[in-house]
Amino acid sequence: MTKRVSGDQKSQDELVELFANANRVFVFTGAGVSKESGLPTFRDLDGEWTKYDPMTFATLDGFLQNPVMVWNMYRKRQKQVAAAQPNPAHIVIAGMESYYPEFLLATQNVDDLHERAGSRKMVKIHGDSQRVRCLDCGESRCASDFDLPDEFDNDTLPKCPECGSLCRPDIVWFGEYVPQEPMFAAVNAASRCDLMLIVGTSGEVSGGYGFAEYAMRRGAKIVEINPSEGALTHYTHYWIAEPAGAALPPIWRLVAATHPRETSD
Ligand code: OAD
Ligand code: ZN
Q1: Topology of domain 1-38+86-126+178-260, per CATH?
Q2: Sign of the alpha-carbon torsion through 214, 224, 221, 182
Q3: Does the active-site annotation cover 234?
Q4: What topology does CATH give the domain 40-83+129-171?
Q5: How far does the centroid of ligand 1 lie from the alpha carbon of residue 244, in Å?
Q6: Quick one: which of 118, 163, 172, 222 is 20 to 30 A from 203 by CA?
Q7: Cα(36)–Cα(200) distance, integer angstroms
Q8: What tens digit of pLDDT does each residue of 173-209 get?
């Protein structure tokens, strides 16, 4: 049963014990973890899908019908991401990977703030907004390898240096498969973990990929950090109903102070 956690001492102590006694940790994040870095989520009231129709801006059909318009939206987002900085939630999550003997972060985010916070034991299951991929040969490259204009027109859309075909943002759109390797690693980690953290995702896409269910079946404890209840909250043992960048650092400071471990780097 889910326990909604407020700032009370008893819940704080329980969470610190839970974090400190875990050994195999799986973290699943979504757009909410980057919200305090100034990046919008998708389904909140001020989210991207309230401004942009996802069928136009997040499907291959929409892209093929109007690549200039779709690219311009992602170009704006690339610049927003480049200007944003990791927040304390990204930093705490990056710090966790050397504390636990087994650790994996699976993010749905296409920004690079987890990496810039120092996360290495991670997989990106929805691709990477800072990369572009050829529609024909499938070659993926860093956006910075191209001399991309601030705004595209028909003549300046990114073309593959190998085969000359149109390139698209290297992310997963609706109706597309998530890449197999990161997905396999995430399913494996979710199925083995003793603690799962769900941070900043509504869990609306593909039922959160079943990760919470795999973790639950294994008997893992599940903690969610999200100011709003979502599709995965009913799986959780603890729901910290606060913004992640505010909620995670005080708990993690206590874990590190009261239960220091040799780091596993
Ligand atoms: P959503 O927009 O669906 O959900 C964002 C979640 O973040 C919501 O549950 C918010 O309550 C929560 N949130 C907001 N601020 C927060 C904060 N400061 N701390 C913690 N949580 C906060 O975003 P995702 O679940 O990531 O796909 O959406 C999944 C996918 O749908 C995205 O990866 C995207 C979209 O279509 C692609 O871009 C391929
Ligand atoms: Zn190509």
Answers
A1: Rossmann fold (3.40.50)
A2: positive
A3: no
A4: SIR2/SIRT2 'Small Domain' (3.30.1600)
A5: 12
A6: 118
A7: 11
A8: 999 999 999 999 999 999 999 999 999 999 999 999 9
Q: What is the pTM of this model?
A: 0.97
CA-closest residue to ligand 1 atom 23: 31
Extended strands (E) in the chain: 3-5, 24-29, 102-107, 122-124, 127-134, 140-142, 167-171, 195-199, 221-225, 238-240
Q: For residue range 115-126, what is the model confidence (pLDDT) as tens digits?
A: 999 999 999 999
3-state secondary structure of 186: helix
Give CA angle at 178 (172, 179), nearest 5°: 105
- Determine phi and psi for 40, rounding to 5 degrees: -70, 155
Domain boundaries, the chain: 1-38+86-126+178-260, 40-83+129-171
CA–centroid distance, residue 245 to ligand 1 (Å) = 14
Task: Among the bound ligands, name the one nearest to the CA of residue 50.
Answer: 1
Phi-psi region of 12 (alpha: psi -120 to 50; beta: other; left: phi over 0): alpha
**In residues, how long is the chain?**
265
